[in-house]
Amino acid sequence: MLFLTLYEIISYLINIIVIVVIAQFVLSLLISFNVVNMHNDFVAAIWRAVNAILEPILGPVRRIMPNTGMLDLSPMVLIIGLTIIQIVLKNLAYAAL
Prior knowledge:
Blueprint: H1 2-32, H2 41-64, H3 74-95
């Protein structure tokens, strides 16, 4: 029962990280296509906050991955890795029952 509770807590945190990664991706597209402007203090504050949250997680992934030029695949690799971790933890939690 304890493993199932720990799985649910970790799964919830993983889901939050995935949502923040997707939000960063959408915001970066909006900034690059000049839909929103970085001169706006609110947009700049959100961009800095999201990057501050994700950089400790995405930094090691970027160091491991080969350089792909302007295309940053580290968010996709992070989401896939977190999903794999979530699946493994779920199977371990149900196996412990």
